[in-house]
Amino acid sequence: MKQERIGVYVCHCGSNIAGTVDVGQLSSWAADALEKRGVVVARDYKFMCSSLGQELIKSDIVELSLTRVVVAACSPHLHEKTFRTACQQAGLNPYLMEMVSLREHVAWVHSDKALATQKAKALISGAVERVALHEPLDPISVPIEATTLVVGAGISGIQAALEIADAGQKVVLVEREPSIGGHMAQLDKTFPTLDCSACILTPKMVTVGSHPNINLLTWSEVEAVDGFVGQFTVTIRKKARYVREDVCTGCGICMEKCPSKLIDQVYEAGLGYRSAIYRPFPQAIPKYPVIDKANCIYFQRGKCKACQLFCPTTPNAIDFEQEDQILQLTVGNIILATGYDLFDARRIPQYGYGRLANVFSSLEFERLCNAAGPTEGKILLRDGVSQPESVGIIHCVGSRDRNYNNYCSAICCMQSLKFAHLVKERTGAKVTNFYIDIRTPYKDYDEFYQHVLQEKVEFVRGRVAEVTDAARRPGEEGKLIIQVEDTFIGKQRRIPVDMVILSAGIEPRHDSKEVSRKFGISCNGSGFFTELHPKLDPVATMSKGIFIAGCAQGPKDIPASVVQGAAAAARVLGTIQQKSLDLEPVLAQVIDQKCSGCRICSNLCPFNAIGFDLERQISTINPALCQGCGTCVSACPSHAISGTQFSTEQILAQLHGLLAESFNGNGARTQSPAFSQAELV
Amino acid sequence: MPSTNVTTIPTDQPDPFVTRSFLEEVVDAVPGDPRLTACLQCGTCGGSCPSGPDMEHTPRQLFAMINAGMRAEVLRSNTPWYCVSCYFCMARCPQKVQITDIMYALKRKAIEDGESRSSSAADAPKFSEAFVNFVENYGRSFELGVAARFHFVQHPGEALKMATSIGIGMMRKGRMDLTPTRIKGVKQLQTILDRARELGGTA
Amino acid sequence: MKPSNEEPYGYYPGCSLEKNALAYNESTSAVANVLGLKFEEVADWNCCGASEYLALDILPAYALISRNLALAASSSGSHSLVAPCSACFLNLSKVDHQMAEVPALASQVNEALAAGGLSYQPGSITIRHLLDVFVNDVGFDRISSLVTHPLYELRVAPYYGCLISRPDYEGVYDSPEYPTGLDHLMTALGAEVVDFPLKTHCCGGHMTQISEPVALELIRRLLQNAHEYDADVIATLCPMCQLNLDVYQEHVNHAFGTNYHIPILYFTQLIGLALGIRAKELGFGREFVSAKRALAKIGKARPAPKKKRKPSKEALPMPQATEVEYR
Ligand SMILES: Cc1cc2nc3c(=O)[nH]c(=O)nc-3n(C[C@H](O)[C@H](O)[C@H](O)COP(=O)(O)OP(=O)(O)OC[C@H]3O[C@@H](n4cnc5c(N)ncnc54)[C@H](O)[C@@H]3O)c2cc1C
Ligand code: SF4
Ligand code: SF4
Ligand code: SF4
Ligand code: SF4
User: Fold this and answer.
1) Is C165 among the domain residues?
2) Within a 10 A sphere around the Cβ of A158, how many other Cβ atoms?
3) Nearest-CA residue of chain B relative to C239?
């Protein structure tokens, strides 16, 4: 076998590595000790990733005719791409480079310099053995279908869809409710500027509804997703509306005449009513109503058809014969903006929601304030008549609590301050906010808090213990009593009020885990979708071509949801621009002859990359979906899966190199090894 | 209210931030991890506590004082003794601090350090002692005995009168024994308790 | 865990049931007879230390409690230990739970037990409260099918007190704040159940001994609330709760100038009545606040269902309640 010509490059990373590892000794050792094994040059340098450092590698490749490169620096997560590109620029196949993580695996986790240097030697030795067996690989190129699927048409999805459509690309926007708008359509005023939510949202909704590049599918859901970045095949169920969109004028007579009235749990947050044929709100986009089959008297009992009778159009717009439609579309990228659910405050029985009439949830209160809501914007008690004279607003309901959601919901402090202001402004009632901490970061938010303070809103620092109607002292009868420790004075207080508003937190959609599975992305423990990198790649996911935006990714307010929608759109437009996408060729491959068809691997693959060839009865791996994680390789009982860049031979060679160094070649330990046996195996 | 007793953080010792010894001591006195260090001072415990209004310090305050190393003030506080073990605080605490168990640990520490004697609830440990005394000697509790021992010694006067009237009523209804019951294995029990006392400590 | 048909329940009556809560003991065994429940008393059990021993000395307190666990586990036939007293129930389950959680504690406790020739493996028996047996093993359906003397028109405030649903180491109760098992049980007897807001609030515990004013105030709150809700009786499941609310009721009236007369009965006494057992066998008459007047209220016929008041046209809908399943 021809001897490879290997270059070894040791990075100091300033003092990050050099502080703990004797880098000078390491490079001269590599040059001497590993010469037999093909190392023709070994150098150390202050910052290998700098352009000067890269130049060093490049000129060695050319001048010394290197055929393999080992860079001992930081984690491949950070700079693998840098060094691969450097190799490529010098004419060497980028996959003939191997990185050793000296910083994360050695320098940052050890303190004894001699032992750390010894461990570094072992790792470099392993990498040299391994890189000799690397094979040149060529990236897989996939064409990008220009159409994008956006799922969820809250403010975040709307923003994403508009950005892409305005850039001249096609969008399919899928929304499960009869109208787009999401939670923002339910709100009254928005913090911190207090502009009217509908006034700033509806223009965007109208644009979405009439945009030539947007194919809007409301009352629809994605049923299945197949394929991979650039070429996803999505199956969408467009539920029967029982209203013909080509005929309906949106006059709304049907809704008035419908005899089946029920509480609207979604748009009115349970505080108002709708009919079985309904359009959630007057400015809905599209304007056509839908029939909610489960509550329609005709569908349930075979008689009624009042809507059809009164519909003034010819032909009649009501069509009971409509059926669900199944659409199959090909899209290149997907943005998930499915938003959030409000925490169900009934889960905290001591706050009395659902039992004590005048305890309201935050969304209920938004509906109370909203001029289009059930009280036409009047802040009233549950009797629908009386105005409260005192109101308590409780922060952090269900948030920052290990019994429920152990995270901060991010919006409820500002939302509670907004409520305090609205109550003051519209009723003049006495308002008390109960909080643990007031969290008002971002532009103009703390100023808003200051403003509310000046409006004589009272603040009690203490997490409310309970809300009760059990009076104990005079003055409490007929009131709701908020029992709390006022932590600034260290005394228990009981504050009687007429109305309590619970600032319930933001939760992942109840079906977020299901949705994440459908789209092959992951969720955190709570159920929010996981981004590729929390700081540096907040809208991408582990699955290429699938992006996330808005509250589906984590609790956030409208500005942040809009920013993420736009960011996801920018990422999508970037890939569309490229027309095709190079995929990492580091993949698992099934060796057909060895596969027994047991299918153990296919359930384990976190990216749903493994399919089954029924005819040949063997598993197959989709190269565009496989991320090269190696799970299947280790799971296959027949050793029928191998990985480019992690074949059995390569791994064994690497172990051989590692052990040769730390065990001094003859099985006897040179000194207490800097890492344990377990770490090796 | 006596909470004004709490004046200063002790200055004759190193700042508790440096030593944190009292906090660690309290943590160690509770089986398992009481999660005391996770307390975020939200006041749910103090708001929930049925005895809260009568405590010199709310549980939350007490935890801040433990954190600040105010050993004597904490152990002299009537708070642990006024804890009725209702577990409301523990069920509601957003950080799952094992508050009730910490209260028990503080009672033990207060007795150990002799600070309970300077507490406004100085009687409380005596009630516990009277109760336990019968248990250790008979294997069963004995209401009349406890009441007699505790109230005769501690509360001659009004309280005694009430205890007596209740006692007579109880007897009339057949709800109180005149003599304690002794279990058969009382020797075995005592050996076990002695051994436990020797082992001391908590896990 | 429901014991199989032949398997009796291990039974730990606790000190109170021997004397001050005799009525609880009497009614439990009378009802058990009718329902065919077998309770096998742990031989030579000792006091659980109530809430006193833990305040003095931790390891002896745990050793005291675990002696009972060891005896129960080694006695033949049963894998469960039923305690009718909430304080005993909590102590037993707390020690069992913490021994399992903290192995070092378990080994210390076992070292102490070994001195008396005993040992206990945490988790080897299931600790249960008596209510749990009625709710989850016997079941509401079976009980209501056996009712011969329904408690029509008797307004019962179901009172759980603290220690049964909190901290609920065994994870049996539907809510630490608003459990519903006793409510459903009382409904099954035909009684009219009061939605009692203070159902899991504190009865004062040992505060009656330590600071009477504090205790009387705690008791007053409960009586006041039950009175406001027009309860005829309060149903309890703990000797301490019964004692405090019953025996100190007169003192509350005296201290606050009130005039409450609310009998405090064990839930087993009410079950017994509905099953047609004679009051005498159920320990009636031992309560300080006599139940006679209240029981005379029990109607002969099922009251006509109350007409739901139609909400006014303006009224806003309440949040739709999703009934929590009782586990
Ligand atoms: C009471 C309250 C007051 C608030 N006030 C303010 C404020 O004043 N200012 C502010 O900045 N923020 C405020 N917020 C926060 C604001 O509501 C959110 O930041 C914003 O609505 C998030 O938008 P989104 O698009 O991410 O999610 P959403 O608005 O939840 O939209 C998600 C959309 O996706 C749809 N969807 C979900 N799942 C699927 C699926 N599987 N298939 C198809 N469609 C699906 C939903 O029907 C919905 O239309 C408030 C929040 C609350 C609870
Ligand atoms: S935003 Fe404020 S109210 Fe909401 S969870 Fe965070 S701290 Fe609590
Ligand atoms: S686990 Fe191996 S043998 Fe089984 S189906 Fe997958 S590749 Fe084939
Ligand atoms: S409830 Fe818990 S977190 Fe809050 S102050 Fe009390 S111990 Fe601390
Ligand atoms: S357990 Fe003790 S400290 Fe906690 S709320 Fe109850 S009485 Fe107060």
Assistant:
1) yes
2) 30
3) B175
